[in-house]
Amino acid sequence: MVDRHQVMSFRVQAQQLDRDEGTLADTAVLDIGVQNTGPDGARWALAVRGVDVTTLSDTDVVLLWTVRGAPHLYRRADVGKVVAALEPFSDADAGKRIYDASKPLKAAGIGNLAALDEVAAGLRAIVSTPTVKGDASGRLATVLPEPYLRFCRPCDATHLYEMPFRLAATRAGLELQLDTSPPVLQRITGFRKAATPGDRFDLIRAYLRLLGPATPKQVADYLDAPVKDVKAHWPADVVDVTVGREVRSLLAADEEALESADGRGTRLLGPFDLFLQAKDRATLVPDAPRAKELWPVLGRPGAVLVDGELVGTWRPRKSGKTFTVAVQPWQKLSDATRKAITAQAEHLAAHRSASLAGVDFGS
User: Fold this and answer.
1) Distance of CA 315 to the CA centre of its chain
2) 1 contacts: CB under 8 Å, gap ≥ 6
3) Which of 38, 13, 8, 10 is nearest to 273 (CA)?
4) Which of 64, 151, 67, 160 lies closest to 115, judged by CA?
5) Per-residue pLDDT tens for 231-253?
6) Residues whose CB falls within 8 Å of the CB of residue 236, separated by 6 or more in sequence, listed in order
7) pLDDT, tens digit, 9 for 90 and up, residues 260-278
8) Domain boundaries, the chain
């Protein structure tokens, strides 16, 4: 039996949250993708793992709409294998990933994978030069038939369903220009999807390696895939591990690392950091009211990670170039821990090109 602190420590080490220096090449979370949502998104996630992001450019990384339709950052050199890894396991899997868009397609006798291919072909033709998302969507809506389209009340216009558009963009070999709002799509130079992703970029294996031990349902929830399909592609080289009363799987190669894990260090995790994306939230935060505080429906805070445990939440408060970090502790913090959190807040302020006015530790 493995206790939850071992699991947390294993993830700290697997995700390299205990190191001070690293490179893009050796940063493990880039194998599964680093979500780029909000001001403390992908760059900050890399920075807390020791990567110098001050010189990061689109020659090094590529931003794609991928898992759950969210924008994720990857190494540019890996893009062919990444796109291969994102291929749905089946037509049913594709239908689950595109949500309510699958219903009108089914009614029209159009397969989900065929629909993604159709949208991808249309996008590829339209985006011959950098194109704003709204323009690409508007043009695509004029050439695709009704089952692909929906009426958008806020815009008072007819658009493609959002998830087929996003997932087909990557399928079409399109990337998102960094730091554009609204998003600008462009072709990936020299794009070619790999025949297979290989073990390193296989999403089930990557989840187990970085967020294990896990169950098929937890991995399926992360991918928005059917549990049946995830079970059908479950790796053979796993061992059973009991966490609490639940039997989970871990890659056999990581068994020793789990047993000896001792994740150390203090980090201010962004709201969508991979560490917080694990689908066993009760393992991350056993206390239900605290879990509700960390994962509200809207406006997520960041999380304070100290030696393998989440000990509170944090929010940025910026006024001009002055920057304050408001911490809401879940327990009494030692002077040493407060000092370490303040050092991380200084790191965050520098990352945001702001001056740290202080850290508010609440009541």
Assistant:
1) 20
2) 242, 243
3) 38
4) 160
5) 999 999 999 999 989 999 999 99
6) none
7) 999 899 999 999 999 999 9
8) 52-187, 285-360
